[in-house]
Structure formats: C-alpha cells, structure tokens
Amino acid sequence: MSEHELVTRLRNGERRALARAISLVEQGGPAARAVMAAAYPYAHAHRVGITGPPGAGKSTLVTSLAQEWRRRGVPVGIVAVDPSSPFSGGAVLGDRIRMQALGGDPGVFIRSMASRGRMGGLARATADAVSLIAAAGFPIVIIETVGAGQDEVDIAQTADTTIVVEVPGMGDDVQSIKAGMLEIADIFVVNKADRPGVDQTVRQLRTMLQLGGAPADGWSPPVLTAVATTGEGCAQIVDAVEQHRQHLANDGAQASRMRALAERELAAAVQELILERLRGPRWEELVGEIASRRSDPYAAASELLGG
Amino acid sequence: MERKIRVLVAKPGLDGHDRGAKVIARALRDAGMEVIYTGLQQTPQMIVEAALQEDVDVIGLSILSGAHMTLLPKVMQLLREQGMTDVLVVAGGIISDEDAEILKREHGIAEVFGPGSSTQAIIDFIRSNVQLTRG
C-alpha cells in the first residue's frame, strides 16, 4: 500500500490504517516522511497536553476528560507516552489499564508510545502521531507525557493547551512545580481533591502564580480541583480548555504558538535528515577517534558537514 | 531503521490473577520489546480493538479461568474479521494438552505455554515467528 493510499484510508476513518501509519512514523525514514507529507495539510486539532509527576493520576484524568468530551459529542484521540528502559530499549506501556472505560467507543482512539530514549517527556514521533490522529478527524487530541519531574517541558511546545496535574501533599514548597512546570501550565489541576491538604496546595499554586505578576500573553492559568476517579471537576476542566482555545484564537496568540511549533518541527526534521545522511563508515571512524580523544566532537562535526 | 517488536499482553475473561502476565510483560520488556499491558477482565472485543489501535505484532493471552475454549477462539475469529491474520497469537495459562492441540490446529493460536514454561522459551518463540514485514 502506498503512503498516499494509507493516508486516504485513515482520513476515511479506517482505524487500522491510522494505527499502521503511526507505526511508520515511529520507525522514521523515507516512508514516514511520505506519510507525514500526505497527512500534514489535514492535521487540524486542538492538542491538549497532560503532564505531572508519576502517580498524580494523569491516565485516570485523561480518561475522565475524554469521557466528558464524548458526552459533548466530540471525538477524542489519545497518545500516552511511557518511558523505555535505558538498558534493554523495551518498555511496558500500562496507560490503557486505566483507560478501559473508553473501550468500545468508535469516537475514541488510544495509542501507547514508548519514549525510545528521548528525554523531555515525549517520544520523537509523538508530534507526528498526534498530527496523524488529527488528520483522521479527531478534533481533540490529548497527549499524556511520561511521569514528569521538573524539566520535562517539551509538552508545552507540542500542545496548544498544557494541563499540569498536581496532588496534595507533594512537599510544603510545592517542590514539583518550581521553575519549569509552573511556567508551562495553561491550566493547573489539583487531582485527588478528596484527600486532605487540597486547599493548601491550591492556595500555594495561586500564590506562586500571583508572585509571577501579570502573564505576558494575558491568560491567567486557573487552578482547578478534580477527583479523576469519579469524574468530579472534569466538566470545569474541559470548559477551561475551551476558554483557553478561545483565548488563543482571539488573542492572536495561536498564530505565534503555531509558528513556535512549526519551528520546532522543522528543527527536528532537519536533525533527523542530517543524521540519516551523515551516518556511514566515516561517521563510525570519527566516533572511534572521539572516544580515544584523537579528535573532538566539534571538529568531527565540522568535517562531516563539509567544513 | 530499527523495528521494535510490539506485544499486547491481555487477560481475557474473569479470573483475577495477573502475576504471570506481569512476569511475562517484564521479561519481554527486558528482551527489548514494547509491551502494551491492558489489565484484567478483557473481553475479546476489547483485546482485538486494543491490538488494532496499537498495531501490535504479537498478542499474548494469559488465561487461568478455564474458559479458554470459549474466549480464545472468539479472539481469533475477531482478528480474522479485522483482517489481522498476520498477528502472532500465543497463549499461556492452565490449558490441557488436548485443548492446546485444538487451539493450535483449528483456531490458529501459534503456541500454548503451560505452567513452568521459561520466559526465554517464550521470547525465543516470538523472535523466531513474528512477522515484521506485515503489509
């Protein structure tokens, strides 16, 4: 099957064609690029990123939010990223366990992805997989990152709306939302709000946001609470995502976000193509020379790039 | 380009014991495979839909409830209906030799691993039989 035919079929709603296309972009190479070229013009969706520390309830929250969108009649695609083992390269992807309530609904498509060595909370092919799901006609695509610490902020450049999930009792200085996480959130959700300490966590988040002064883009991130296991609070979160989408559209901020995303995608594509072209016998020799300190990485890179 | 083997490990039916499935999932991960684990109490429809969305090369079905002669043929039938006959399906659990023979001969299960099977044997079987050139 040609890449073009594959994209035609996924746009016609063939779920298997979509699944196969995602595998192709995960592998990379010329076939992946042909698929992306065919699908890219149709990749319109609102991308909702969900990030936060391991165990904060991200998968459960994704499930409840998807159910809320489905109640409103909106099809939802989901890409859930879990870490690959740095030793074997394998992975156990367990996000579907908590997404069983979405099974059997043709308006939902879920794909699990291993990070395959990429840092930053996403896999190399996550943005491409999201584009393919968007091209298949899902107007909302939720991206769940690996359990993130303080520096896994790639999601903010891939998503239109970034939701940072916190839970009560994660440390009295709100450790996990220091610089990186605090800055990328468009919406904060304090999950497990049936536990003690939720008011304190909400207050701390609001205080830290106020300390930062007026937001540059005119959007003040709301701090919401949820109990993802029961769906409590999820209607308000979906409302907030829709408000943020409106804000981006009215404010012209969407255009600059799209440019930032485009630049990032271009940089990733350039890197991939250059590496693919340069890897060869001379590459291997230079790796050996660098390892034995007979050359250095910059000199070797200059030589490979012809000057 | 490197091609990862993707495996769905699923527990069809109503038994609540997934220690074996988790041991297998871990072993396959350590062998460099990407394992999608879907949890307990899966219907054949849920298993086949997950396998389709995840575009897996292999399905591993763990079943201890005794309902394997009902549930496993149903999974195979749904896979055929979806045109997913190139997916390698293996089963594990408490399955008699007679039943295993029927599942393999009549329903297309590639292999049945009973209690005491080594995880290495399962890894080797998958590596030797998986079709990575699916069309």
TrEMBL record, chain A:
Q: Does the keyword Hydrolase apply?
A: yes
Positions of the AAA+ ATPase domain: 44-194
A Pfam family cross-referenced in the UniProt record is: MeaB
Supply the alphabetized keyword list.
Chaperone, GTP-binding, Hydrolase, Nucleotide-binding
SMART domains per UniProt: AAA
MF terms (GO), sorted A to Z: GTP binding; GTPase activity
- Give the signal sequence positions: none
What domain of life does the UniProt record list for this protein's source? Answer: Bacteria
Which protein family is it in? Belongs to the SIMIBI class G3E GTPase family. ArgK/MeaB subfamily.
Protein name from the UniProt record: GTPase
Automatic annotation (TrEMBL), chain B:
UniProt cofactor(s):
adenosylcob(III)alamin
CDD domains in the cross-refs: MM_CoA_mut_B12_BD
Report the superkingdom from the record: Bacteria
Q: Does the keyword S-adenosyl-L-methionine apply?
A: no
In terms of InterPro entries, this protein maps to:
Acid_CoA_mut_C, Cobalamin-bd, Cobalamin-bd_sf
Instruction: Give the Gene Ontology MF terms in alphabetical order.
Output: cobalamin binding; isomerase activity; metal ion binding
Q: Does the keyword Isomerase apply?
A: yes
The residue ranges of the B12-binding domain are: 4-133
The protein's UniProt keywords, in alphabetical order, are:
Cobalamin, Cobalt, Isomerase, Metal-binding
- The protein's name: Methylmalonyl-CoA mutase
